RNA sequence: GGGCCUGUAGCUCAGUUGGUUAGAGCGCACGCCUGAUAAGCGUGAGGUCACAAGUUCGACUCUUGUCAGGCCCA
């Protein structure tokens, strides 16, 4: 069996019959099941983690298609954003924005455009190879005019609602590259560095010799200090140290003792009381500011975990910025975008902020002025530019914001209607993120992206937000040409006349955050509202039932989808969402190009087949961190796919031999085994449906795996003989009908999970017999099932049978008596009712024993030991339980026997009934016995002459069968046997001659005196030679 | 530094509202079967449920803390 090869045949079949598109077109008019494809970027290759998402994204659409829904499968690609620009910069050798301008923005974005689809084919191929039905022909892409227009339309809605505004944002900034960095880029560049941290004395304005002690790890920011912050609730002490008075958080005192030296606490009050107190700036050059500054602010973000509990504020930090804004402090930036100290920094003017000596010089200067309490070295993580390895500085830059905080409550309400898998994301990671929502900075000072459609008048400052290309043309007084590229730099050349003053309006130069593109995808994929038909499509396909992405999207796509959809429709655009974890390699390391541990999905599919890869992704909960290992794929093959295939091929082999064909009025469920497997099939259908409804692929897959095991290792194994019998009796017909039905239904139930192998089986098992059948299993209907077939009583009985068998085998194993040796009897205790004849004969046959006996009175075999049933007695007895339980454990066999008979007795002053005890059976000496739970099995191991002969005969058959196999005979080939051997063996063979002939399909068996060509055999002390010839 | 998650057999993972002896697969050992054969099956040995305290008659399960790992954010 070559699964990868089979995959290709199936893909060819799908291609030829256009199955992917027909899963949609043949469900026209059916209820819609809606899923959104989050647009991946295609300027990088897909890896195995993407394939996990592809596998999951494919599962429910296939399932719901079979359930009779129409599922659109539109693909989408993210074609804007920083990753693309970074690739372009790197390949063009551009290091900064300045370089880009020199190179030419038009040439630069042309290059970006060329790279965006670089790996689109690789993505399409990988998606196809894993068997995902995704319409990669009719895709949406964020760079198209249609899509950009939807961006504009959404922004116009926001604009009209007053939700767009221009503000400042603190961004990590690389002075050398002249670029601000995204959070993602910044995260890549954190390094542990050792800096000098300073404890600085800020002198109070109105109180002599009194200082706030503030702590900083970035001395250069002191040059831009505008305020100090304390925590209003923490206690601050004033210390007398010599003639100085020092103010700091009491909690920090112990840590700073050494630095401070001898002190006396002379005052103690909460930080809140210092609010508004003014201090003198450290340097004169900081003095003359336009606005009030240099006073104390109370804010709870200040902690006493390190430093002094007093924080100095400068415009180079996010919390600083927030407080500076909230308190209308002046925006002082004495270090500029180049990283250089500005003209208002006195002797430091012109120095580079990251120059190590600058810190030292500032330190010396402060010390000279008596403003330094102390210094210490500190190791902390600080962001560096991942490109040029230079220290970043946080810089306040202008940005456009979407006022998401104004509808935070509505987002929280919308979140309540989303089913998260796993559930904890809802109020955990995602809910917390929403609770702490701040306005979304939607603009980027970059080049390759959707242009922000806002024009500002250079004269009067009037602003317009343009909602479509047509509107833009109307405002300009001439239509925009169809082939006009809306990207920078071209769009920037379009100016508008100002309605207010007639001046010239120029576009705001920013582009949109590419997450904004992703968030508008429910509208953008149809080009809503400008594209023809887009309104109908949107209304029909909103909101979606299901999306699936990796966990890192909580602040990415999941958030932006919710923000946009809440803003526009006051609800979430998705109902169910699976968050997958990221996939790591076998040793738990993240896969990355630099480590060289990235696994190519196509290669892995070509090695093991796509079904094995899918199965692997489905079998564990997708949100637990998964280590990808090829060994597990092999395991899935061995445990599931190969047995699956073998079950199918077993059926086909015999159906061919018997020329069996499916027919109307199937004669189902004659034999107990048949009724059992049909009941289990019904269980499987119910379990898979329930699991799929709960977006639980792992449980559904587990059920399929369990069923395949039951089918192959019990139903088929126990039924094999029913298929060999050469007479066409009724039982055989029923066996065929049943197995056929089971295989067909199992195949359909498995189709969404294992689309390739099930397609092959469908073609051969269903369509080959009936050309009227659908062209593909993926166009076929989900099995309707029949609750009548469920027989839980029988399932329970079969579980008992398998338990009995298992225990008895274990006993045989211990006694070292192989199954071929027949044994006279087993004794079973502890099952509620006797087994039916058919089940009993299953047990006898499986174990090769002659008789099964039941024993109610087990006392011959066992003595009893009792334990308290804690679940029953616990709530009733409470604290008295321990004592009672001990007394119960002390009961002897007689007392327990008595309790069983009377049903109730008093133990340690407590009335206890039979049901309050859990009985354990302890085998008595002299029996070959074992119990598990309530079930006990004893095996009689006395072997008499007759049983020994029977054993020898079976060994004889065994050897003949091996010879048949060695000679590669057809299963129906008849033979003649010649045998030469010892007396006991001959007697055994004679005694069981008919049995041997039937089993081995032998026409005759002759004893000969000499057999040089024969195969030597040895059974116990018996030796002989056998020769097999076909006739 | 903050938030969320995870820690169960050598490995990969299950474990339902707290309740009898914590399960499965792989690997390992032993055996079986061979008329489904890149085979298959059975049995067995492996666990102080990361650690500690608390709540409780009773904790893998609930609470708190510690340690380790992951993700996101700073």
> Terminal Cα separation, in Å?
31 Å
Low-confidence runs (pLDDT<50, min 5 residues)? none
Mean pLDDT: 85
Number of strands: 38
Output the structural class.
alpha+beta
Main beta sheet:
6 strands, mixed
Enumerate how many helices there are, as a single number. 35
Q: How much helix, percentage-wise, in residues?
A: 40-55%
Strand order within the widest sheet?
10-8-9-6-5-13
Sum up the overall morphology in one term: globular
In percent terms, what proportion of residues is strand?
15-25%
CA-atom Rg in angstroms: 40 Å
Q: Mind explaining what this structure looks like?
A:
- This protein has 1031 residues and is an alpha+beta fold.
- Helix content is 41%, strand content 20%.
- It is globular, with a radius of gyration of 40 Å.
- The two termini are 31 Å apart.
- It binds one RNA strand of 74 nucleotides through α9, β13, α15, β26 and α23.
List keywords for this structure.
4-stranded antiparallel β-sheet, alpha+beta, 1031 residues, single chain, 20% strand, RNA-binding
Strand-helix topology:
Blueprint: H1 3-17, H2 19-25, H3 48-66, E1 74-77, H4 82-92, H5 97-103, H6 105-116, H7 120-129, E2 135-141, H8 145-160, E3 164-174, E4 179-180, H9 183-187, E5 190-203, E6 210-216, E7 227-230, E8 235-241, E9 244-249, H10 253-260, E10 264-270, E11 295-298, E12 310-313, H11 318-326, H12 356-368, E13 372-383, E14 393-402, H13 408-416, E15 419-421, H14 424-427, H15 429-435, E16 440-441, E17 443-444, E18 454-457, E19 463-465, H16 469-476, E20 496-497, E21 504-507, E22 511-512, H17 514-519, H18 521-524, H19 534-540, E23 544-550, H20 557-569, E24 574-580, E25 583-584, H21 601-608, H22 610-618, E26 626-627, H23 630-657, H24 672-693, H25 697-724, H26 730-750, H27 755-767, H28 792-815, E27 823-829, H29 837-847, E28 849-854, E29 862-868, H30 870-877, H31 881-890, H32 893-902, E30 904-907, E31 910-913, E32 917-923, E33 929-932, E34 935-940, H33 945-966, E35 975-981, H34 983-991, H35 993-1000, E36 1002-1007, E37 1015-1019, E38 1022-1030
Helix pairs in contact: 1-27, 4-6, 13-20, 21-22, 22-23, 23-25, 23-26, 24-25, 24-26, 24-28, 25-26, 26-27, 28-29, 33-34, 33-35
This protein binds one RNA strand of 74 nucleotides through helix 9, strand 13, helix 15, strand 26 and helix 23.
């Amino acid at each position: 069996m070559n699964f990868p090869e089979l995959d290709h045949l199936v893909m060819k079949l799908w291609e030829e019959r256009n199955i992917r598109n027909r899963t949609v077109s043949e469900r026209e008019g059916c209820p819609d099941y809606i899923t959104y494809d989050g647009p991946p970027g295609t300027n990088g290759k897909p890896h195995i983690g993407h394939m996990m998402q592809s596998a999951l994204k494919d599962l429910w659409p296939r399932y719901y298609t079979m359930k009779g829904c129409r599922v659109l499968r539109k693909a989408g690609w993210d074609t804007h954003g920083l990753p693309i620009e970074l690739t372009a910069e790197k390949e063009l050798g551009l290091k900064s924005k300045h370089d880009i301008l020199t190179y030419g923005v038009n040439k630069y974005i042309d290059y970006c455009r060329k790279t965006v689809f670089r790996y689109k084919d690789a993505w399409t191929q990988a998606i196809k190879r894993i068997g995902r039905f995704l319409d990669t022909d009719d895709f949406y892409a964020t760079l198209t005019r249609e899509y950009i227009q939807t961006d504009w339309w959404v922004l116009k809605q926001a604009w009209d609602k007053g939700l767009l505004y221009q503000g400042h944002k603190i961004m990590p900034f690389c002075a050398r590259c002249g670029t601000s960095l995204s959070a993602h880029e910044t995260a890549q560049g954190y390094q542990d560095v050792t800096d000098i941290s300073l404890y600085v004395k800020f002198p109070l304005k109105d109180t002599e010799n009194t200082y706030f002690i503030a702590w900083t790890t970035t001395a250069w920011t002191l040059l831009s200090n505008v305020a100090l912050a304390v925590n209003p609730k923490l206690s601050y002490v004033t210390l007398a140290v010599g003639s100085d008075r020092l103010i700091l958080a009491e909690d920090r005192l112990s840590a700073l003792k050494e630095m401070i030296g001898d002190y006396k606490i002379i005052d103690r009050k909460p930080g809140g009381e210092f609010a508004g107190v003014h201090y003198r700036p450290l340097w004169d050059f900081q003095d003359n500011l336009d606005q009030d500054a240099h006073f104390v602010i109370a804010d709870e973000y200040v902690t006493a975990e390190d430093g002094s509990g007093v924080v100095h504020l400068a415009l180079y930090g996010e919390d600083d910025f927030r407080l500076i804004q909230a308190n209308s402090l002046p925006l002082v930036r004495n270090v500029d975008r180049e990283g250089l100290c500005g003209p208002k920094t006195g002797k430091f003017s012109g120095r580079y902020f990251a120059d190590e000596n600058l810190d030292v010089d500032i330190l010396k200067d402060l010390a000279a002025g008596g403003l330094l309490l102390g210094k210490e070295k500190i190791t902390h993580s600080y962001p560096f530019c991942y490109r040029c390895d230079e220290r970043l500085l946080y810089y306040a830059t202008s940005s456009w914001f979407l006022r998401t905080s104004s509808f935070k409550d509505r987002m929280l309400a919308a979140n309540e209607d989303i089913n998260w898998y796993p559930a904890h994301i809802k109020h955990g990671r995602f809910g917390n993120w929403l609770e702490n929502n701040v306005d979304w900075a939607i603009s980027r000072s970059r080049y390759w992206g959707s242009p922000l459609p806002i024009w500002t008048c250079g004269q009067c400052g009037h602003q317009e937000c343009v909602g479509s290309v047509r509107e833009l043309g109307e405002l300009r007084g001439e239509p925009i040409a169809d082939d006009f590229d809306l990207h920078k730099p071209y769009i920037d050349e379009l100016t508008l006349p100002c309605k207010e003053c007639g001046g010239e309006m120029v576009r705001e130069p920013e582009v949109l955050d590419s997450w904004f593109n992703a968030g508008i995808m429910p509208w953008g994929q149809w080009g809503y509202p400008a594209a023809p038909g887009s309104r109908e499509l949107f209304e029909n396909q909103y909101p979606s039932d299901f999306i699936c992405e990796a966990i890192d999207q909580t602040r990415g796509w999941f958030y932006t989808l919710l923000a946009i959809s809440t803003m526009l429709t006051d609800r979430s655009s998705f109902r169910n969402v699976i968050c997958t974890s990221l996939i790591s390699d076998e040793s738990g390391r993240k896969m990355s190009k630099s480590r060289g541990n990235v696994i190519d999905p196509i290669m892995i599919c070509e090695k093991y087949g796509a079904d094995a890869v899918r199965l692997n992704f489905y079998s564990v909960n997708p949100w637990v961190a998964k280590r990808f290992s090829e060994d597990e794929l092999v395991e899935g093959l061995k445990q599931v796919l190969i047995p699956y295939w073998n079950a199918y091929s077993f059926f086909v082999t015999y159906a061919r031999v018997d020329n069996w064909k499916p027919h109307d009025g199937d004669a189902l469920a004659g034999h107990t085994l048949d009724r059992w497997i049909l009941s289990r099939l019904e269980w499987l259908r119910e379990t898979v449906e329930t699991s799929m409804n709960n977006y639980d692929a792992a449980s559904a897959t587990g059920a399929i795996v369990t069923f395949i095991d039951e089918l192959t290792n019990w139903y088929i194994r126990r039924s094999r003989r029913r298929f060999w019998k050469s007479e066409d009796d009724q039982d055989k017909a029923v066996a065929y009908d049943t197995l056929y039905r089971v295989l067909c239904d199992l195949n359909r139930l498995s189709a969404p999970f294992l689309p390739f192998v099930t397609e092959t089986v469908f073609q051969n098992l269903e369509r080959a017999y009936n050309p009227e059948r659908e062209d593909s299993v993926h166009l076929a209907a989900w099995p309707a099932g029949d609750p009548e077939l469920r027989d839980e009583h029988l399932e329970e009985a079969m579980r008992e049978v398998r338990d009995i068998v298992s225990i008895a085998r274990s006993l045989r194993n211990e006694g070292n008596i192989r199954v071929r040796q027949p044994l006279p009897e087993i004794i079973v205790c502890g099952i509620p009712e006797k087994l039916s004849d058919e089940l009993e004969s299953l047990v006898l046959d499986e174990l090769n024993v002659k008789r099964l006996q039941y024993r109610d009175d087990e006392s011959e075999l066992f003595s009893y030991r009792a334990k308290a049933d804690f679940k029953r007695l616990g709530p009733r007895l409470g604290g008295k339980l321990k004592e009672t339980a001990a007394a119960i454990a002390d009961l002897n066999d007689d007392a327990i026997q008595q309790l069983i008979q009377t049903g109730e007795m008093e133990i340690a002053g407590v009335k206890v009934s039979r049901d309050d005890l859990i009985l354990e059976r302890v085998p008595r000496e002299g029996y070959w016995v074992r119990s598990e739970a309530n079930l006990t099995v004893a095996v009689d191991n006395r072997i008499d002459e007759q049983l020994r002969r029977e054993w020898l005969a079976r060994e004889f058959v065994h050897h003949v069968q091996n010879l048949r196999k060695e000679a590669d005979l057809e299963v129906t080939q008849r033979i003649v046997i010649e045998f030469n051997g010892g007396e006991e063996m001959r007697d055994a063979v004679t005694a069981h001659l008919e049995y041997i002939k039937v089993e081995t399909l032998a026409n005759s068996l002759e004893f000969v005196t000499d057999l040089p060509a024969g195969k030597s055999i040895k059974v116990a002390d018996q030796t002989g030679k056998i020769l097999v010839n076909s006739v």
